[in-house]
Design brief:
By secondary structure, the chain is mainly beta. The chain is built from one helix and ten strands. Strands 1-4-8-6 form a four-stranded antiparallel β-sheet. The radius of gyration is 19 Å and the shape is globular.
């Protein structure tokens, strides 16, 4: 499968996989951005994508940024029909400012197949062993 990418920002870096077998590829920031403690920003990434029909791009945290620095992604889905610049929603959950330098990894993206379903309203749903059990329904162990 091919993923066509168009640079919108002259300093945008083409995403790449860090290691063979990685599920997600790294996406880089084209300009320096600082996030203050508790601040959230929607950051343009300087790229547009042509995701193949029947697939979507899922935007996810970089685990090192999340665990080490409290930098979290709002997540998001890029649909196959979208051709505009995509952005990363990022929040600094820590008590210290964090600066992304131009060219730093900011998020990762997974390209996933999408199943389109027929949505049908019904009066009743079939039963299951879980039923309507909510959070913690599987127990503590």
């Amino acid at each position: 499968m091919q993923l066509k990418i168009k640079k919108i920002h002259p300093d945008a870096k083409i995403p790449q996989y860090a290691h063979t077998g990685d599920a997600g590829f790294d996406v880089y920031i084209p300009e320096q951005v600082t996030l203050l403690p508790g601040e959230r920003k929607t950051i343009p990434l300087g790229l547009a994508l042509e995701i193949p029909e029947g697939h979507a791009g899922l935007l996810l945290d970089k685990s090192g940024l999340s665990h080490k620095h409290g930098i979290q992604s709002f997540g998001g889905i890029i649909d196959s029909g979208y051709r505009g610049e995509f952005h990363a929603g990022i929040m600094n959950m820590s008590d210290k400012p964090y600066t992304f330098e131009k060219g730093d990894k900011i998020i990762q993206m997974l390209i996933m197949p999408v199943t389109t379903v027929d949505i049908i309203e019904v009066e009743e749903l079939s039963s299951s062993s879980r039923g309507d059990g909510r959070f913690g329904s599987s127990g503590k162990k």
